[in-house]
UniProtKB/TrEMBL annotation:
Pfam families (UniProt xref): AAA (PF00004)
Keyword annotations: ATP-binding, Nucleotide-binding
Record flagged with keyword Nucleotide-binding: yes
InterPro entries for this protein: AAA+_ATPase, AAA_ATPase_domain, ATPase_AAA_core
Protein's UniProt name: ATP-binding protein
Domain of life the protein comes from: Bacteria
Protein source organism: Reyranella humidisoli
Domain AAA+ ATPase: 116-248
Record GO terms (molecular function): ATP binding
Length: 328
């Protein structure tokens, strides 16, 4: 017979179709391993064709019509960019290709009773590709991208929150998609609030239970700029943690090559690498676009060194100002 823990898990997964199936597969695999082939075959038959089958479409049918029911806190984004539009470290490329391949072989993996990695935590400073990468995931897999407005869910805690979290659950369970939680550290901050905000803490805990229990038909991705703010209780809920760092010089070189691919230049931007140290990709993107725009405004066909240097100076001024605001 299957081990007691598996039986307990099976009972606990009642009503959660995906989870039930995963545990059932584990039980079947265990029986196969023990050479109880007849029992294993008969269990598999019951799982595939048995009386639970008619209930499957109902359990998987969309329970909430999107966008009406969830539109207040979920926004649909059409992925427009692809893998040529992102610069990733070699390590991150390896992680992403691994995740994509695992997702694509998801059915076979689940059939063997093994879970598929689908909950990802993206960490790193602003403007280094967390959102862009979620977009690419969606476009590579042909899935829609949905951004969860966490602040709306958290601030709606007077009354509607429980309903909203339930809607979110149903949504993620039924809609194959990449579900993206930006500024996930807001949860950690809210979790640390003091006693008078018990209600808020309950909301946060419900969301964490959501992350625990949901078996998305795509990916749940949470992003944070403040990985220090997340406690271990949050980290361990994710199957994979990926870091997005500011680019070093070789990565800046790759970025400039990509950004100016179809642009006529009168200079070599790589001679300015030292002036670009410490910038995030979003800042590099902005300054490159600014240099290109200057040449357009001046009705020139090519970008000059002067355009580029002026754009760097502008970005530096902006960075100085914003870092002063951040420390206030
Ligand atoms: N790794 C990258 N390669 C190429 N372009 C990038 C990269 N990272 C960011 N960009 C550019 O910067 C823009 C903003 O990046 P993105 O929104 O992904 O940052 P983020 O890490 O999610 O930031 P935030 O934490 O502020 O939400 C992108 O749309 C893209 O133009």
């Amino acid at each position: 017979m299957a081990r007691a823990e598996l039986m307990k898990k099976l009972f606990a997964s009642r009503g959660r179709d995906e989870e039930f199936r995963t545990v059932a597969e584990q039980i079947i695999n265990e029986e196969e391993r023990k050479n109880n082939r007849v029992l294993a075959r008969s269990l598999r038959r019951s799982l595939d064709e048995g009386p639970s089958q008619p209930a499957r479409p109902k359990a998987l049918a969309p329970l909430i019509p999107f966008p009406e029911a969830a539109a207040d806190f979920i926004e649909r984004i059409e992925p427009t960019r692809n893998r040529q539009d992102i610069i990733l470290s070699r390590e991150n490329v390896r992680i992403f290709l691994g995740l994509l391949r695992e997702f694509q072989s998801g059915d076979s993996i689940r059939r063997r009773g093994l879970p598929v990695r689908s909950k990802l935590l993206f960490c790193g400073p602003p403007g280094c590709g967390k959102t862009l990468c979620a977009e690419l995931f969606a476009s590579e897999l042909g899935l829609p991208l949905f951004i969860v407005k966490l602040d709306r869910i958290i601030s709606s805690y007077l009354g509607e929150t429980a309903t909203n979290i339930r809607k979110l659950f149903e949504f993620a369970r039924t809609q194959p998609c990449v579900l993206f939680f930006d500024e996930f550290d807001a949860l950690a901050r809210a979790r640390g609030e003091d006693g008078e905000h018990n209600e808020l803490r309950r909301v946060v805990n419900s969301l964490l239970i959501f992350i625990d229990r949901v078996h998305p038909k795509g990916f749940v991705v949470a992003a944070t700029n403040l990985d220090q703010a997340l406690d271990p209780a949050i980290w361990r809920r994710f199957d994979e943690v990926v870091w997005f760092d500011r680019p070093d010089r070789p990565m800046i070189t790759r970025f400039l090559r990509m950004r100016f691919k179809n642009v006529l230049l009168e200079f070599d931007p790589h001679t300015h690498l030292s002036a670009l140290d410490g910038y995030a990709y979003a800042e590099l993107e902005r300054l490159c676009l600014q240099a290109i725009k200057t040449s357009i405004i001046d009705k020139r066909k090519s970008v000059t060194e002067r355009d580029f240097v002026a754009a760097i100076a502008d970005e530096r001024r902006r960075k100085r100002r914003t870092s002063r605001i951040d420390t206030i």
